[in-house]
Amino acid sequence: MGGGHAHPLYRDGASPIHRAPAEVKIVSLVVFVLAVVATPRELFWPFGLYALIIVGVWWAARIPPAWILPRMLIEAPFVVLAVLLPFAEGGERVSVAGLELSVTGLYAAWGIVVKGTLGVAASLTVAATTTARELPIALSRLHVPAVFVSVLTLMVRYIDVLSAEARRMRMARISRGDSPRMLHQIGATATSVGTLFLRSYERGERVYLAMLSRGFDGHVPAPAVGAGCAAAATPRQWTVALLPAAAATTVAAAAWVLA
């Protein structure tokens, strides 16, 4: 995949979580998120247990909360949406700090915030312990269709290229006296976005034709084990890596039984 094998969300480390094959981390993440989503939002204690599971994985992966928490701000737009729900929903209402809020809206807001936060935290944990090279290989081992693996591989490879192109375009505008943060320049900003899209499309065509001329058949070959690629997961690794997901599934089942 060319240059570096890491991505901006990756935190270099040598913990057991880092060394675990990526396919078991992906499956564990999916099972964990499904358990969180399936939990009734009217209950509160299961989400505290889910948070403890994530914190335990952080401890095992040697990821300090101060490193990962700022990166969770990506969910801020969903939090803003959730804040509006208690005012917009109908039904039974309750007075909170002098405000009449919908009970249904409060539960909906709570569900969005807590489930979204746990999902983002779990996803960032996997991203922080998995290199960009490992992801396509893991998806291939999980029998994801080759076309999706190829798209993901190329996306990961060229996202940095497009980011650098966007930075160069912005620097060129600033050097010519532009002020990208000013509202009156929104037209120029929109034009830059369109230009970047066209350049990306043209670059993609050139790269694809170059790949075809070199015998590309739609399948990205996996690198040899040891060249930045861990061996396929053993049964023991599957068992150990799925412990957090199994714990989350147990909590979700208990929540439905006790609900």
TrEMBL record:
Gene Ontology cellular-component terms listed: ATP-binding cassette (ABC) transporter complex
Species of origin: Mycolicibacterium vaccae ATCC 25954
Keyword presence, Ribonucleoprotein: no
Protein name: Cobalt ABC transporter inner membrane subunit CbiQ
InterPro entries with a match to the protein in the record: ABC/ECF_trnsptr_transmembrane (IPR003339), ECF_CbiQ (IPR012809), ECF_transporter_component (IPR051611)
Transmembrane region(s): 43-61, 68-87, 107-130, 142-162
Localization per record: Cell membrane
Keywords carried by this UniProt record: Cell membrane, Membrane, Transmembrane, Transmembrane helix
Bilayer topology annotation: Multi-pass membrane protein
Top-level taxonomic group: Bacteria
NCBIfam families the UniProt entry points to: ECF_T_CbiQ
Chief subcellular location: membrane
One of the GO biological process terms: cobalt ion transport
One Pfam family matching this protein: CbiQ
